[in-house]
Amino acid sequence: LLQRERKREKEEETKKDHQFQRRLRYRKRERARYQNRKKKTMASRPGFAYDFPWSKIGKMKYAIYLPMLYRGIVSPENDDSDQWHFHMTMIVLLRYVMAQFFISLSRIHAITEKTRIQSKGIDFKQVDREDHWDDYILLQYIVMSMVHFCPGLGFKNFPLFEKKGMWQLLLLHVGPTEYVYYWLHRLLHHHTLYSAYHSHHHASFVTEPITGSVHPFMEHIMYTANFAIPLLGTWMCNGASMAMFYVYLMGFDLLNAIGHCNFEFVPKFFAKFPGVKYLLYTPSYHSLHHSRVHTNFCLFMPIYDYAYGTMDKSSEELYDKAIEGKASPKTTPDVVFMAHGTELLSMFHLPFAFRSFSSRPFTTDSWMLKMLWPLTLPAVAALRFLPGVKAFVSDKHRLKNMNIETWVTPAWGFQFFIRSEFKHINAKIERAILDADERGVRVLGLGALNKNEALNGGGAFFVQKHEKNLKNTKVVHGNTLTAAAIIDKIPENVKEIFLTGATSKLGRAIALYMATKKNCRVLMCTTSEERFEKIKMECPEKFRHLLFRVNNANEKVKITQESTSNVLKKSGSFLLSRLGSLKNNNNNNNREVETEEKNDTKTNYSSGRTCRNWVVGRHCDKNEQSLAPSKTTFHQFVVPPIPETRSDCAYTDLPAFRLPEKEAKDFKTCEMTMERGCVHACHAGALIHALEGWQHHEVGAIDPEKIDVTWKASKKHGFACL
Predict the structure, then answer these.
(1) What does the pLDDT look like over 483-493, one tens digit per residue?
(2) Is residue 115 within 8 Å of 258, Cβ to Cβ?
């Protein structure tokens, strides 16, 4: 009986514990759901009908357009007499095209930086919140079609054009619609409605062209009812036509985008024309509504703000400053990072291409993206052959007290492997370095192939050529931090590593560091004896026994005293030829590197059969990976990353760093395949160089003695290695 009693008590305790755990999990889910909704909504207290009905089905919402596309495009014989579905298809398409045009226009810094209104940038939170900006297009299409097909109403059979209807449309908008919107807008700024709905829109302090259409569902219902007044009124006055829908909807989107584009472009002669300031707002006028909230309430016509005393007194002053380039003066960046195109479709990952796509890690999995492939060919031709094309500003950020810019070399990845393109690409990079120095940029970082050894010797070509002329800018390849990130992932107590790409810039640094600092044996997989011996002679004598050149499963090649003297002679001639080649556009060096690379392809990876730490600097296919023992870790610095073919092995990520979250501002795009808030190690290296205020160029070969110094500096400034 006692055992049964104890068993029953234990079961009850277990049951209570399970109930507690269920309640705890439920609370966590509810809290996470609330936080997630709050992150998306940004309203203080979301009210009734805050979310759109299709908010939970994601991209499936676009299925709403299928009947329109079918009857308007696929089967036009089933369309109405006024071709309603065809015209709706064209209007919807044009609205998307116009939005994309203004998004791209507002993000091209060469166009907007002179007359920019707000100097701050936007972040990922705003991009996500505004990701469903096109919900209003869906809503208005549904409402118009419901009215069109309503039995007995007669809102159909429209002629193509009716002249008098255009005037009726204009008068009905200027009168009732603008007036109703003004008071509705003021009502939405009452604390109850503002916290429930309108605060969602005002969460965007710095606006983009599509910000004007980002509102909760209930708010859009109010606006749609108001904006229907001109369309229904014109129809009731017998002036309706299909042109009416094109003119009003496209005109509305145009003015809405202008008001939220965050750069002033309305010319002075037009803005100062008598009466214009009452009839048409400017981007700077509406910008004040977002920065000061309780002024400038009008839709498009400031006359109602003037009439009811809500016009901001600094509106004209801000306009003058913006149009003269004084509202957000152009600043000199502290750091410039030079990126370049990778594959052809990477052009659509630029910030001014597709805002949502660029805010996520780059991938080519989307079938819609692949459909745009033909557009890349004219872009390649234009950037290659049009005169005057130079590196352009892709994005701007802030880190701590530094201004950062990303510049893009106008070249794609394949061009960096065509010898005839070397001179052209180097000319673009060289011009960017000189422009940066003239502007007073402190550090210019070379990313990826911009610092290719065969191209410019890891940036050494530019420093040797212009070292006396570079007064402000330090050129940095960032590979010291890259090497530090790779080494950090190798276990502390490891006794042996197998290194491929061993004689490359990074391979050399890793080999020397692991031997001298970690007392680790390094199996350097290469067939180039000359390059191996050159590296070995750089290593202090007491550690040279830790470096081995391996070429097959049973071979470990050591050098003798006699071969050492021969290697020194060869190394001296090699260095002299290297310097000479850099001065002559690297022609001799290119042939030498190509020959060595051809030799390297013959390397047998079976030399790593007994080693469980592979440091991979060259492509390693499935067959080569199969030679590694079970539970091997592949530490890689090869681009693109090697395929993960072994389920019994581990694969580390490419060297990259997460920026300090609280101090990294205005990041709205991902750096190629990196996650949000992360950058490649070479980019992080340039940032660390500037934060530390180092006054040396970091080009050419990596100094192993600076690896620890650079690593400690990255930790000091809050950079986290991925």
Answers:
(1) 999 999 999 88
(2) no
Summarised one tens digit per residue, pLDDT across range 212-242 is 999 999 999 999 999 999 999 999 999 999 9
For 249: left if phi > 0, alpha if psi spans -120 to 50, otherwise beta; the answer is alpha
If pLDDT is split at 50, 70 and 90, which confidence band does 557 have?
very low
Find, among 272, 280, 268, 270, the residue nearest to 325 by Cα: 268
Pick from 169, 175, 178: nearest CA to 249 = 169
Helices marked H in 415-542:
422-439, 453-456, 460-466, 479-489, 505-517, 529-538
- Which pTM does this prediction carry? 0.84
CA-based end-to-end distance of the chain: 59
Give the DSSP letter string of 556-614: -B---HHHHHHHHHHHHHHHHHHHHHHHTTTHHHHHHHHHHHHHHTT--GGGGTT-SEE
DSSP label at residue 698: B
Rounded Cα distance between 392 and 408, Å, is 5
For residue 445, the SS3 value is strand
| Per-residue tokens: 600 | 């390297």
DSSP β-ladder status, 633-636 and 521-525:
unpaired
SS3 category, 543: helix
Residue 108 is given by DSSP the state -
Instruction: DSSP for 4-55, please give it.
Output: HHHHHHHHHHHHHHHHHHHHHHHHHHHHHHHHHHHHHH--SS--TT-S-TTT
Give the Cα separation of 235 and 158 in Å (integer). 9
Q: Which two tokens stand for residue 542?
A: 């007491």
> What residue type is assigned to position 611 of the chain?
C
SS3 336: strand
